[in-house]
Fold this protein.
Amino acid sequence: MKNRIQSLSRVIRSILVVVLIASPLIVGLIWLSGGEILMGDAQSGMTFQFLGDDLLTDGELALTVPLPWEARILGLSVTMIPVGIGMIATWWLICLFGCFARGEVFTQSSVSYISRTGWTMVASVVTLPIYQLLLSWVLTMHNQPGERLLSISLDLNDLEKIITAAIIILVSWIMEEGRKLRENDDLTV
């Protein structure tokens, strides 16, 4: 069983390294394209997932495509808030699966990486309204007065993320207690 855990951990770790490298590159490409990739097909799920449902629904807002360079750079900068937090979480997972690949399951390092992943997920939800507010401003700042927008939203997905993060943090605390018990048993003669 230990060999399977180590083998699968190596595979997952490799995939996460690719994700860590690719995510900022893909986001940069999307923003620097001027928005055609981003808003070319407003009906696509990717567009709504990336921008949020509120910005492009029902054609309420006329966004200029291609976006002006100022909006592209600001949009890229703002988008790096959630992307950066996602990269941090991915880094903790890379470290965690590195521990698992070395056979280190109930170590202080592995427990710490699990806890850090949970807290990073909490940070992603807490910063989400700031990201949405800034992105809505960046995308509409060149519109005529009355057509500019500041928007935030919270939904059940955000609540699910907080609950998932709380469970991950709780699991890390339980694993920490288990690790301490194992250390005490190892020291008992």
Observations:
- The CA atoms of residues 175 and 181 lie 10 Å apart.
- The chain is about 75% helix and 0% strand.
- The two ends are 28 Å apart (CA to CA).
- Residues 42-50 have pLDDT under 50 and may be disordered.
